[in-house]
């Protein structure tokens, strides 16, 4: 597995899984797997500035990477996206299929 970033790293990029899978290690024995169409990395951009989880690519994975300046331009153009992101960042769990409108 290739580590994309570790918990505590500074974060300035938002990612969408294009192909493959990303393993997100939230706590020691609590992990989730993200599949194509699912996104991650927004917490560092919207709230903390640092990564809140360790993310690893499983097998061969392709990602769409959006740097913070482009991320916020996207929100200015499509403000309805920010509502879904704020719900996720606030700690409310949102089913991944609801987050695929990017």
Q: What's the gyration radius in Å?
A: 13 Å
Question: Level of helix content?
Answer: 25-40%
**What's the overall geometry?**
globular
Tell me the strand percentage band.
Answer: 35-45%
> Which segments are poorly predicted (pLDDT under 50) over 5 or more consecutive residues?
92-102
Strand count, sense and barrel status of the largest sheet are: 5 strands, antiparallel
First-last Cα distance: 26 Å
Alpha-beta content class:
alpha+beta
Q: Quote the average pLDDT.
A: 81
Oligomeric state of the chains in view: single chain
What features would you describe in this structure?
The chain is of the alpha+beta class. Helices cover 26% and strands 39% of the residues. It is built from three helices and five strands. It has helices spanning 42-48, 68-77, 80-89; strands at residues 2-5, 13-27, 30-34, 39-40, 54-67. Strands 1, 2, 3, 4 and 5 form a five-stranded antiparallel sheet that branches. A hairpin with a 2-residue loop joins strand 2 and strand 3 (30-34). Helix 1 (42-48) crosses helix 3. The protein starts with a strand and ends in a 13-residue tail after the last helix. Residues 92-102 have low confidence and may be disordered.
